[in-house]
Write a structure and sequence with these properties.
Helices cover 73% and strands 3% of the residues. The protein is mainly α and 637 residues long. Helix 1 packs across helix 2, helix 14 packs antiparallel against helix 21 and helix 14 crosses helix 22.
Length: 637
């Protein structure tokens, strides 16, 4: 399978082309089944490549497949090439696996939509872009996929573009990501200038062999981190992700769980040898940005009332955990949490979509309650996702979150405390959501009465096409943690698998106090989680404690509003002043130069009449003047 890894992105590409050409003829649901089949086929090839690599010795678990010479320009020679190694194949497995499940769910969710075929056209194109991103053998191929997912996110978030909020959200995502892309491009320029290549293998080898200076490595790492901050929605560029909820729920699940937002974490892991030789403050910066983002987003989630907004801020917080892991040198833990997060967050988003579908497009949790009786399958699977993200053992999220906390304590007790507080808040706001939606009082009854025709307006369970993906993801959220358990070296399966990729950057914490007391830390994390669950249960279900939801948290610390005010006020004035300077000074200088050259040329042109006698006369005058100069000035007789 390694020789045909190009089939992994080729299948969604084929789906995109076929729907582009025959989408209207295929219609609903065949266009959806075609797109889903392409993702399943891509998953099968990914699984085959995984088995091929697993059967090889550790040092041979890397295969480069060159398709053609893409950019042969002087010393810049970039191939369209794919790299199959433990990291890229791990990414392919959950991108295609979870992506296929989301595609299947979308067939039921998008039923009756006028642009059904176009939606799956965009989904396949989005998946193609993400697979190019993770399979790229060099920075330029990755950047191609990087820009592809950015473009597709715009198309999908603003899919229902007749709603002004959706159109605005799509533009916001596109523009915000361009800021991060600036950092990625500068990193490519710096890397090529320093090493003469964009190949990951050669760049990382240069770092490991000391051929890359610390200052250059620092520049590349920081600039790539800027790109990662934009794509993975970290402070201060997180603002696009909550608004991305304007897209259809399958889009939210695809972007937030398995694809676009994980790209930044993947990129940091891919260049971990460069981060390892950069200045000491670089990983510390990454860790603190991640920790601050995790805590910041968690505080906001506790006061949100839109069922998808809670999950959006939860995604930002969980991504912060992953960057905390990267900055702590826990690359295996970062990928581990990325995988488990793909399972339980896709489950939660698809579960929220099932609730919205059953509630006739209602997203306000204050109008829900006691839905477990009307939607039992959705409720059971959503509860499993809740327990996984909250970090309750033995669900998948418990194991990956705990490993991040272990490495963060080994790096800095302050980072550990921030991570622990975030874990408590995560358990709190997710319990709040579960209680408001599935327990408590059935507040939807008055909502149904408002709409009349009670029988039609009452909540109902989703169709089988939407429930089957929930069951599959629920099972993965239970057993997914088994790929990396802390009990012995034999249970560190993911660590052994990723070792060839992260060997240079992975922190060594054996012998530290944190490592020697890891079971104590497991207990502390469990207690903290249970405290968060109990507090939320007492507040929202038992009503024993007063509800505290400050307006400042409901408005996300007013950060987004302040940013909009600045960009719409002083920012707009500054942009207009810059535009005026460009038009009148920069362009004016260019136009003035052109005018001067043209005027001078016009004056000279008048002396060129084209008559032979005029030219002969000018030559004669010139000869006389030269003779005079030699005789009078130089004194030559």
């Amino acid at each position: 399978m390694l020789d045909v890894i190009w089939l992994i992105p080729a299948f969604p590409l084929a789906g995109f082309v076929l729907i582009l050409l025959f989408g209207r003829r295929l219609g609903e649901p065949r266009a959806g089944y075609l797109a889903t089949t392409m993702m399943v086929a891509s998953f099968v090839v990914s699984a085959g490549a995984f088995l091929d690599l697993l059967g090889k010795p550790e040092e041979d678990r890397a295969h480069i497949e060159e398709l053609f010479s893409w950019v042969p320009v002087s010393t810049l020679d970039v191939n369209m090439a794919f790299l199959a190694d433990p990291l890229s194949i791990t990414m392919c497995l959950f991108v295609t696996g979870v992506g296929a499940v989301i595609h299947l769910y979308a067939i039921g969710y998008m039923h009756g939509d006028a642009k059904f075929s176009k939606f799956f056209l965009y989904l396949n194109l989005f998946s193609l872009s993400m697979l190019l991103l993770v399979l790229g053998e060099n920075l330029l191929v990755t950047f191609l996929g990087w820009e592809g997912v950015g473009t597709c996110s715009y198309l999908l978030i603003s899919f229902w573009h007749t709603r002004e909020s959706a159109a605005t959200a799509g533009k916001k995502a596109f523009v915000t990501n361009r800021i991060g892309d600036w950092g990625f491009m500068l990193a490519m320029f710096l890397a090529f200038n320093a090493v003469g290549t964009l190949s990951y293998d050669k760049l990382n080898l240069a770092a490991e062999e000391g051929l890359l200076s610390s200052s250059t490595a620092t520049g590349i790492a920081v600039l790539l981190f800027v790109g990662a901050v934009g794509k993975s929605a970290q402070l201060p560029l997180y603002v696009w992700l909550p608004d991305a909820m304007e897209g259809p729920t399958p889009v939210s699940a695809l972007i937030h769980a398995a694809t676009m937002v994980t790209a930044g974490v993947f990129l940091m892991t891919r260049v971990n040898p460069i981060i390892a030789v950069s200045s000491d403050w670089v990983p510390t910066l990454i860790a603190w940005v991640g920790a601050a983002t995790a805590l910041f987003a968690a505080t906001i989630a506790v006061a949100q009332n839109d069922i998808k907004k809670v999950l959006a801020y939860s995604t930002i917080s969980q991504l912060g955990y992953m960057f905390l892991a990267v900055g702590s040198g826990a690359y295996v833990a970062a990928i581990f949490h990325m995988v488990t997060h793909a399972f339980f967050k896709a489950l939660l988003f698809l579960g929220s979509g099932s609730v919205i579908h059953g509630m006739h497009d209602e997203q306000d949790m204050r109008k829900m309650g006691l839905l477990r009786k009307a939607m039992p399958v959705t409720a059971i699977t959503f509860v499993i996702g809740w327990l996984a993200i909250a970090g309750v053992p033995p669900f998948a999220g418990f194991w990956s979150k705990d490993e991040i906390l272990l490495f963060s304590l080994a790096k800095s007790p302050a980072l550990y405390v921030v991570g622990l507080v975030t874990a408590l808040l995560t358990a709190y706001y997710m319990t709040r959501q579960v209680v408001m939606v599935f327990f408590g009082k059935a507040r939807w009854e008055s909502h149904a009465e408002e709409h009349g025709a009670q029988g039609d307006a009452r909540p109902h369970e989703s169709p089988i096409l939407m429930l089957l993906p929930l069951v599959v993801l629920a099972i993965a959220s239970v057993v997914g943690g088994g790929i990396q358990l802390p009990f012995s070296d034999a249970t560190h399966r993911l660590e052994h698998w990723l070792h060839p990729v992260v060997e240079a950057g992975e922190a060594e914490i054996e012998g530290t106090w944190a490592y020697d007391n890891k079971y104590l830390l497991l207990g502390i994390a469990t207690v903290v989680t249970l405290i968060g669950i109990a507090l939320a249960w007492l507040v929202y279900e038992r009503r024993r404690l007063r509800v505290v939801e400050p307006k400042v948290l409901e408005h996300a610390w007013y950060y987004d509003e302040a940013l909009s005010n600045v960009m719409g006020g002083p920012g707009r004035e500054a942009f207009e002043a810059t535009s005026w300077f460009d038009r009148n000074v920069v362009d004016g200088g260019v136009r003035a130069t052109a005018w001067g050259v043209r005027s001078a040329a016009t004056g000279l042109r008048t002396g060129q009449s084209g008559f032979v006698r005029a030219s002969a006369g000018i030559i004669g005058i010139g000869a006389v003047l030269l003779l005079a100069w030699f005789v009078v000035v130089r004194g030559i007789l």
